[in-house]
Amino acid sequence: MSDQSQDSPPPVPIQELSHRSQWASFAMRKEVWDFQRNVSILPDPKKGELLPASDTRHPENPESSRGQKLRVGIIGAGVSGLFTALTFDYLREHYDLDVEYEILEANGDERLGGRLYTYCFKDKKDEKGNNIPPGVPDVGPHEYYDVGAMRFPDIEIMARTFALFKELDMQFNNQDIEENRKNNPPKKGQLVPCHLNGENQPMLYNSVQIVTDGKKSPTAADFEITGLPIEITQSNPSELFDSQISYYTYLYKTAGPRMFWNSLTKTADHYSVRQYLTQIASYDYNTIEFLEAMNFGNRWYDQAFSEAVLEALDFDPKAKWWCVEGGSQQIAYRMRDRLQHAQAIEYKKRVLGMSYVDKDCQQIDVTVQGEDKPRRFDAVFNSAPLGAMQQMSLEGLRLNWGTKQAIRSLGYGASCKIGVRFKSLWWIEKLGIKDGGQGKTDLPIRCCVYPSYNMHDPVDKPGVLLVSYTWSQEAERIGALISRDSPANEDELKLVVLHDLARLHTSTDAAFEDLKRTITEEYLDHYAYNWYADPTSVGAFAFFGPGQFQNMYPSIVQSHGKHIIIGEAASSHHAWVVGALESAVRGVYQFLWQHAGASEAARRAAEDYAADKVPMPFGPVPAEYDRTQDIRVPSTVKDAAVPSPKGELVRQQAMIEEIRLKQGGDVVDTSKVVKEDVAPILTVVNA
Ligand SMILES: Cc1cc2nc3c(=O)[nH]c(=O)nc-3n(C[C@H](O)[C@H](O)[C@H](O)COP(=O)(O)OP(=O)(O)OC[C@H]3O[C@@H](n4cnc5c(N)ncnc54)[C@H](O)[C@@H]3O)c2cc1C
Known about the structure:
Blueprint: H1 19-38, E1 70-75, H2 79-95, E2 99-104, E3 118-120, E4 144-146, E5 152-153, H3 159-167, H4 178-183, E6 191-194, E7 201-205, E8 208-212, H5 230-233, H6 237-255, H7 257-267, H8 273-279, H9 285-295, H10 305-314, E9 321-324, H11 329-338, E10 345-346, E11 351-356, E12 364-368, E13 375-377, E14 379-382, H12 386-390, E15 393-396, H13 401-409, E16 412-413, E17 415-422, H14 426-429, E18 437-441, E19 447-450, E20 463-471, H15 472-479, H16 491-504, H17 509-522, E21 523-530, E22 541-542, H18 548-557, E23 563-565, H19 577-595, H20 600-610, H21 648-663, H22 679-686
Parallel strand pairs: 1-2, 1-14, 2-10, 7-18, 11-15, 14-23
Antiparallel strand pairs: 3-4, 5-9, 6-9, 7-8, 11-12, 12-13, 16-22, 17-20, 17-21, 18-19
Helix pairs in contact: 1-18, 1-21, 2-11, 2-19, 6-7, 6-9, 6-10, 13-18, 16-17, 19-20
């Protein structure tokens, strides 16, 4: 057991969790620790008496009708919303949990999946000879591109995503093997390889073009970039950045997580990457700008330095990456088709606001655009991205300042993508870019992705190139040229794209003119998307700033199981499908805890979650909730040597939020907490 004499929660002792999960756990445990320290009827953590695991069995409630039907509203038919519904189906099947859900989606059915969005180019006529409108699936084998999520590394952190793929019967089909290409062409929804690097990848910075195999990073000297200290000019830019975080990665590996977390929170979390590199690494201004331009893109270094360290610890460059044949939206179609009640998804139902019905905050009224009467639910899973959530009227939910602040100000990143359909795969035929991968430049298009899913297609037939993938300020800027009804009204964008594309792939003016002429002739059509201009996403993905994870994250994941915020931002794996899935599991667990007193099935399911018996992908509770050694009583409970069950942190957080709502204040007044508030805990202490 750890040293409890300090004023912070005990250290994180477990090493096998992902670093992001450990970070999330660290942030959330502080709140439980503070609560326990200040509530006099609870054990004193300073004396080594830690908060016990609460009894998973809830006080019997004779008034309640056990096994009652519970009505649940799910806002959003993206990954997290659909997965919440699938998890309830699983719980119905295995525990007889009687939950009736409705999924309210603001967009039409063509946008099922939210940020799982595959755009398909038109090229077919229907039987009457009319053009099939853009965006309709089933047009050409590979004449699409993924506007949102597009690739998935097969690593431990993504285990739940791959478990979902298995659940949805999405088989691996390795098209890198010639035999498979001949005998086993991929079917929609199968997983095919995705290559991050390959031969003949162009890089163009400072108007100097260098062609690499994507593995070696050229230096500033190679690109004739001036104004930098001599030692910087000769160095590999990614190694330069790595050298600055190596102190923390070394600390993690040698001194262990406790030293690592202490050091990261005390010395680094409050810095942005830019501030850290200026004040601690003493890099000069030009060097930082150069590293940012080479490694990521403008304003990327405004994120928290701690996030960058965690990213570096998590990233596995040797992983095998996969993408989905037919596009990632196939995942959403398969999820929909797997639902027991696919008709539960209601499209064009924009949620405008929510309010608790009663003073005990047990039911929620949801106002939907165009409907006279609110819909009433026992609980609501809110998966709208934070910017879209902020547009809802949530006053009636009695959110506290911390949650309101988190919804309003947690960092959310920009991203744009532009896909162009050409008459042929000229990048393979003319330039030998035959392995997929990506080209990079300091021009506005920034990153050009050569799809792996079409690299074995006939080169003389039409195909799509993701000519531009941008983030942060570069996305905001190119976004100024993207119209809401792309490809209409985008003449200027088209000029920029064809210019940059030809420049990226050539090294002389003559070759540039030649390639520009070719690709202009080859151009068929395009589709561009700016995620910040989409009112249902208002940004691309969570991108936390300095101190935000530590201080704001707990406020969006805390819930007493009635209004539950889910979605990738409310997880420790931002910008990944796995984060959306994890948030849904956490949300369902919070829901089960809340309803365990009234529903026998919910109680049994909650107990199985707590005992880690619910299999992937529907369980277990996300790893950050596994770190509960510090919230048990080591000396007074007879089985204290056994760690608290998984999910205990969720339960403690839910209890604190319920007390706050009962008290009606912005924060819990710890002096007013009474025995009944913490009854499940005290039962165990007294046992
Ligand atoms: C450009 C880009 C690239 C990405 N690349 C990858 C990748 O390669 N691999 C990976 O794993 N992940 C990737 N991601 C991340 C991944 O797509 C997301 O993490 C995940 O899809 C988010 O799911 P969600 O359910 O949290 O949110 P969403 O998918 O955004 O779902 C939220 C839903 O709520 C709806 N909604 C919003 N407001 C309302 C309202 N008022 N009323 C009703 N409904 C509403 C929206 O229309 C939407 O359907 C990428 C994301 C982007 C944007």
